[in-house]
Amino acid sequence: MSSRLSPGVPADGLRPLPSESTLRVQGYDVDLVGIVHNTVFVRWLEDMRSEWCDVYLPIPQQIADGYCPIVTSVQVEYKAPVRFLDRVTGRIWVHLARARWQAEFEIYANTHLAARATQTGVFVNLPTLKPIAVPPALMAKYHAFLDSQSGDQEAALPAAVASETSTSRPDLTPQM
Hints:
This protein is about 25% helix and about 30% strand. The chain has helices at about 40-55, 60-65, 135-150, 160-165, and strands at about 20-25, 65-80, 90-95, 100-110, 110-125, 130. Strands 1, 2, 3, 4, 5 and 6 form a 6-stranded antiparallel β-sheet that branches.
């Protein structure tokens, strides 16, 4: 396993620590021609990462333990427009290295890929705001996930997330 983090799905195809979110287009998210503004996608990334934290490492616990994640870079590749009445779903998975993390995202509108994005960041000690190693509890979940993937290239959603979305989730197969 390489500790190098790079945009996109890694060569092994694994999508560790996945989560899925339903995203809502608000009236104020669209421009004059009814297309979601590009800055909304960045907000959605934060919304999805917050929901991901709820599953894997809740923010209140991080704060109580004296650390939190910060974003050091964001990259968004827009693939197709999203409109006001579109049904929007996002997926996130997170790769970890010793002292940094990288979140990969896909956003779908009506089952069509609308955007791919990457956030890179570090965890910081709250009193000093200096970078620290990835928290051991999260690293243990990451390694347990990787160990559980014996040849399955498409990672399943965690049970808590899958149960929330199984009845209303659209087919998220990318349309080429």
